[in-house]
Specification:
Layout (H helix, E strand, L loop, with lengths): L6 H29 L4 H31 L3 H11 L1 H34 L3
Helix pairs in contact: 1-2, 3-4
């Protein structure tokens, strides 16, 4: 499969990605200037939070670029294929939905249990 991206879109993507990187670097610099290196735990926690937040931003930009090149989102393609082939694959599709729902409910139970464990209340 080959993707085509215009030079204009590619340049915009690179500029946005660079802006995200610069923002994260600036926030890290500000944190170190304000707090120094004395509390390594706090420094690591802050760096992790920045990497998570701005990493998610970079991933969203990449997904948007990919979707723009493809012409439709991955989820739209999956949904389209499901609708076209639903009758043939009804059991598999419903099993996937049940598994996804069960996994989501389990994560919610774990999150609630972790919250209670940390705070002692819900």
């Amino acid at each position: 499969m080959s993707l085509t991206v215009s030079a204009k879109d590619w340049d915009a993507y690179i500029r946005r990605l660079a802006a995200l990187d610069e923002t994260a670097a600036g926030k890290m610099r500000d944190f170190v200037q304000k707090h120094g290196f004395g509390d390594m735990g706090a420094l690591i926690d802050y760096a992790y939070a920045l990497a998570t937040k701005y990493g998610e931003g970079a991933a969203a930009l990449s997904a948007a670029m990919y979707d723009a090149a493809e012409g439709e989102t991955s989820q739209e393609k999956i949904n389209s294929l499901r609708r076209e082939n639903y009758a043939e694959h009804r059991e598999e599709i419903n099993a996937q939905k049940r598994a996804a729902y069960a996994a989501r409910r389990e994560r919610q139970r774990e999150d609630k249990a972790n919250y209670i464990d940390i705070t002692g209340k819900w």
